[in-house]
Design brief:
Number of domains: 2
Strand content: under 5%
Number of strands: 0
Number of helices: 2
Radius of gyration: 35 Å
Largest sheet: none
Shape: flat
Length: about 130
């Protein structure tokens, strides 16, 4: 059998009293405030840069769309008989909304099917 040896507790060290705590706080507070402002500015700059990075492709696509629209307007001045019906913004928006709701319904059906399969599996597992 092994004997357990007890570890000695560390020697007691009395706390060192801080003289003039108000002076210390007065000296630190402007630094802390300046430091917080720098942190806020840094975070704001980083957020702006990251936002601009994520928006850059969208802005490029928007510029391309504007160029295409301008070229379409130039072509509209010399109208050719259009093969497809011209849709205005509201009609396009309605069609996009209908398409998105159809996609959402399809995904909901897939999720419901998966849930039913999982419930069936759980039903088979239970005693």
């Amino acid at each position: 059998m092994r004997r357990r040896t007890r570890k000695k507790a560390p020697a007691y060290k009395p706390p060192i009293p801080v003289s003039e705590p108000e002076v210390v706080e007065k000296e630190i507070m402007p630094f802390v405030l300046r430091h917080e402002e720098e942190i806020i500015n840094y975070i704001r700059d980083k957020a702006i840069k990251e936002t601009m990075k994520s928006l850059a492709p969208l802005l490029e696509k928007l510029e391309e769309a504007v160029k295409q629209q301008e070229s379409a307007q130039v072509q509209a001045v010399t109208p050719d008989p259009p093969d497809t019906p011209v849709m205005n913004y509201e009609e396009q928006l309605k069609r996009l909304q209908e398409a998105s709701t159809a996609k959402v319904k399809e995904k909901e059906l897939k999720i419901m099917d998966r849930m039913n399969k999982l419930n069936a599996r759980f039903g088979n597992i239970r005693p």
